[in-house]
Design brief:
The chain is an all-alpha fold. The protein has 15 helices and three strands. α2 runs antiparallel to α11 and α6 packs antiparallel against α7.
Length: 405
């Protein structure tokens, strides 16, 4: 094997190592945060930990398989995958088919493994599809009617499905996935600003129209004004973080998880991390996601084609933006949106899909570190020129064409 081929086959070990560490920490924290709730609900202290571990094992199998497969081989599946997920998201809305929890209908019953949430699988399916679509329209990325309008229509269609499922948190993440892929693919900044402004108005509207969302927004301003009502979750989260101090109270010694903090093992697990491991633990978790983001965007910049660049940017934005949004809600920096903490929050579909996405990201990183980039330095140069002209690298044979200065 030549040295170039050997170099190209090397994975991004730091990205993989960071993912493994985050998952290991997440499994420990799910086990600790869920023991009380699991025992009272299912008479087994490790009910949630066992299912999270099973889904995580499935996710790592997907990660290693996809990391070894050329990411371009999944591209032909993009349209069918997006349509299949959209149909599943419609199917969960059918009474007696989808599972309803707290008034939201987003899940299927997955038997011994708990529940299956199609919208989590949709994050990956839509990321692959939109990267594929952007690459197909690479020559017209600056066109408003031919490219931007269809792009915005597809995004709005997905958001309507998520609003029917009452899943505002996933809707916000999907927006991040679409916009990051569009920008990395060479979309115009003014188009993104226009779309972001329109979506912001839409999110404000759906927040005001839904009483429970409006109550969260009101409680966000001053959760201590109603600490036993609308502000209960936010105040208990802050109590947990404050109780941890610098070093934490120790793994397994949280008080908040004993019925005080709702969703302690899911959306608010970061508060338990802070309580049990303190400022040191939360800082390490944040550093883990920072390293993940740096390596992910590095893979995007070094991708050998536009499809890989847009897909790597979408996956990295999805995971890091979701982590940032979760931490912001747990610390009451932003209103509660119901977004999980990647690799940490309990949720089988979420952790398995996220790990599968990391596998795709590792594949892009592996192919982007080959001899073509190192010898020709073509991709980085094209990217620099392209950003100046509001374009991204051209894929395939187009990538070798000269770009006007």
């Amino acid at each position: 094997m030549s040295s170039a081929a050997s170099q190209r086959s090397q994975p991004d070990r730091l990205l993989l190592f960071t993912t493994v560490l985050l998952c290991a920490g997440g499994l420990v924290m799910v086990t600790s945060a869920s023991v009380a709730f699991a025992y009272t609900q299912h008479q087994s202290a490790f009910y949630y930990a066992e299912r999270q571990g099973a889904w995580m094992a499935i996710g790592f199998v997907a990660l290693f398989v996809l990391a070894r497969v050329d990411y371009r081989r999944i591209r032909p599946l993009a349209p069918a995958g997006a349509v299949a997920v959209a149909l599943l998201m419609l199917l969960v809305l059918v009474p007696h088919v989808g599972v309803s929890v707290n008034g939201a209908r987003r899940w299927f019953d997955a038997g011994p493994l708990g529940t299956f949430q199609p919208s989590e699988l949709g994050k990956l399916a839509f990321a692959v599809f939109i990267a594929h679509w952007i690459d197909r329209n690479s020559q017209r990325m600056g066109a408003f009617q031919q490219v931007f309008v269809p792009f915005a229509a597809m995004l709005v269609g997905v958001l309507v499905l998520l609003m029917l499922e009452r899943d505002l948190g996933t809707a916000i993440i999907i927006v991040g996935i679409f916009l990051s892929a569009y920008w990395a693919g060479g979309g115009r900044l003014r188009h993104l600003i226009l779309l972001a402004a329109g979506l912001a108005l839409g999110f404000i509207a759906v927040t005001i129209l839904e009483p429970y969302r409006f109550a969260r927004l009101t409680a966000f301003k001053n959760p201590w004004a109603d600490p036993l009502g609308a502000g209960f979750q936010a105040t208990q989260s802050l109590y947990g973080l404050a109780s941890g101090g610098v070093f934490g109270v120790g793994i397994g010694h949280s008080i908040e998880k004993y019925g005080w903090l709702p969703e302690a093992h899911t959306d608010f697990i970061f508060a338990i991390v802070g309580e049990e491991t303190g400022l040191i633990g939360t800082t390490l978790v944040m550093l883990g996601f920072i390293v993940f983001g740096i390596r992910g965007y590095r893979a995007s910049l070094r991708a050998p084609d536009r499809f890989g660049m847009a897909l790597a940017a979408a996956i990295t934005t999805w995971i890091t933006f979701e982590a940032l949004l979760n931490m912001a809600t747990v610390t009451n920096t932003l209103p509660i949106t119901g977004v999980p903490l990647p690799f940490f929050s309990y949720g089988g579909t979420a952790v398995a899909t996220t790990l599968a996405a990391v596998g795709v990201l590792l594949s892009i990183a592996r192919h982007g570190s080959g001899s073509a980039l190192r010898n020709n330095r073509q991709s980085d140069e094209t990217f620099d020129r392209g950003r100046r002209h509001r374009r991204a690298p051209l894929s395939g044979a187009r990538g070798r064409a000269s770009v006007p200065r």
